[in-house]
Amino acid sequence: MSFIGISGMQYSGESLSHHRILLVEDSNVFTSMIGMRLKELFDIEVEICRNFLELEESYERSSTPITLAISNINLPGAEKGEALNYLVDLSVPTIVFTGTFQQQTRDQLLSKEIVDYIIKDNVFAVDMLAESVCRFLTNHDHHVLIVDDSPTARALLSTRLKRYNFRVSTADSGAAALSILQANPDIGLMVTDYNMPDIDGFELTRRIRAFMGSHQLRIIGVSSSTDRLLSARFLKAGGNDFILRPFIDEEFYCRVNQNLDTLTQIRIAHARRAA
């Protein structure tokens, strides 16, 4: 099974049919389109819930954990977002698929710590949804290291990445990061703060590049500094990307995805050459 998403994501692996996916949507058009697309691409049979009552019954009649839900905001019997709140309260990872979207809506959705949101405003919406589903179901294959001396910053980034289903390790110093990398060769991405007391982000990146190239580990630097030249210095030290705080969730997730997509493409190319 192989898949190439709109944003460049590539997946080549086994069927994803073992995952239990709920589709909470009252539109016959979209339930048909989404159901057919996920079956075609990933061999996934979705469970369709067209109203709040069907959602409750679907959850209660089966003890099989729900891997992921795809939910509209407004449903018959739940016009004020009750279905989404129900899923969130049950800690079910949820992608929102909605035609109603404003800045306030976006802020409210992210405050509920949903996985993602897709807007029904273009012909590619279903394909974008399929890619978001595939990312969530396969993100656990990726191991990410967060390096920051601030417990608050580490917790914030860790929570964000775990929400997207990544495996996450954390380090509170550059020295600890080097030890974790040596012990975990499967780590494919490191997100590191610039300003740390023992080894700053630049020096940490330089030391890592002495034994790990970009084809093995992607490195994203982050900083709260107002110095715009930090990004240039970080990239020259061997980093792959740089983000200034405060950054928004969508930007952060996009940068993470782009770097992991690049790593995947490099690994696929190497495997083909070795074959």
TrEMBL record:
Example GO BP: phosphorelay signal transduction system
Keyword Transmembrane helix in record: no
Keyword NADP: no
Highest taxon of the lineage: Bacteria
Keywords assigned by UniProt, alphabetized: Phosphoprotein, Transcription, Transcription regulation
Sequence ranges assigned to domain Response regulatory in this UniProt record: 20-135, 143-260
Name of this chain's protein: Response regulator receiver domain-containing protein
Modified residues (4-aspartylphosphate): D193
Alphabetized InterPro entries for the sequence: Bact_response_regulator (IPR050595), CheY-like_superfamily (IPR011006), Sig_transdc_resp-reg_receiver (IPR001789)
Taxonomic lineage from the root: Bacteria, Pseudomonadati, Pseudomonadota, Alphaproteobacteria, Hyphomicrobiales
PROSITE patterns: RESPONSE_REGULATORY
